[in-house]
Amino acid sequence: MKYRGKIIDSHHHMVGGYGEGLAFYELYQKLLENGGLSAMNVVMIPQWGEEYITQNEQAILFKILYPGKFYTYAGFDYYMPKGKNRKDFEAQARQYIDMGFDGIKMVELKPMVYKQLGCPVLSSEAYEGMWRFMENGGHPVLLHMGDPETYWDISRCTKMDLENGWFCGDGTYPQLEEFYADVEKVLDKHPGLNVSLAHFYFLSAQLERAARFLDKHPCVRFDITPGREMYENFSMRADEWRDFSIRYQDRILYGTDNGWSRGLHNGKRQEDRALVKFFCACALYIADEDGQHDAKNQVDDNKGHVINQGI
């Protein structure tokens, strides 16, 4: 029997909108409708660069314009005018939650962003008050840590990886395991933290490690926002990953990472790409034994998450 309940995209981005007015928001409404979604969680990444510094303010408009259809996570502001001091991270988190944001999105440990932010250490004292506030309040965090392991091996990087500057094995970046260790320190100190780790925590080639990690950290979830490596890695052990998905069905969140197309000049292309990613993610993770794609999901309406509940 086909699942006909709610589906919420827990990991959607916002890029553009700076000069397009309400038409920008109308495009996202169309993406939501065409994808058959009940709602989507649009996550902000002002950490990415100065071009993105107004994202948090724009995000609140989603909730005002489309009540109940958009959730939003704020990102921390690192880019202050000369002479101005940045608020500490706990103060920012409190402010964002008070403003009506549903959680916090962190991309500080994505290698490219990590370097331009001055190499932040999330287990350091600078973030401690924020982690404590988020844990005590049960406020969700969506954390991007690292990148695909292939980015540290030039022989496994594609031409596109190299052209985009994604190679991390040139000695100017930490090893991927150092990023994992930083996150482990945070989770060990804050075991009740309500955190989802983007892109399956880049463990799609390490099934046993992924299982051990989820067993050790019962409050942690992975999202299936697709990285390019995930399709190939999951397919290599399809039956085992299907069993994994059943075992941890309440720990896996649906997400697409859609929203990266810039501007409305190619809005139709963005719609098409969004739908392709939507159906690829569904086919990848929720095919039953006969190859039928019956999505059965449980929705946490309070946090904007969709959880793969049965396969």
Question: What's a concise summary of this model?
Answer:
With 311 residues, the protein is α/β, with parallel strands linked by helices.
Kindly describe this structure.
- The structure is a single chain.
- This protein is an alpha/beta fold and 311 residues long.
- It has eleven helices and ten strands.
- Strand 3 (70-74), helix 3 and strand 4 form a beta-alpha-beta unit.
Kindly, what is the distance between the CA atoms of the first and last residues, rounded to a whole number of angstroms? 12 Å
List SSEs in N-to-C order.
EHEHEHEHHEHHEHEHHEHEE
Rg over alpha carbons: 19 Å
Number of helices: 11
Please summarize the sheet with the most strands.
Answer: 8 strands, parallel
Shape: globular
Oligomer: single chain
Number of domains: 1
Estimate the mean pLDDT confidence: 83
Give the CATH level 1 class: Alpha Beta
How do the strands and helices of this protein lay out in sequence?
Layout: E1 8-13, H1 22-34, E2 39-43, H2 55-65, E3 70-74, H3 89-99, E4 103-109, H4 111-116, H5 125-137, E5 141-145, H6 159-163, H7 176-189, E6 195-197, H8 207-216, E7 220-223, H9 228-236, H10 238-247, E8 252-253, H11 267-286, E9 296-300, E10 305-310
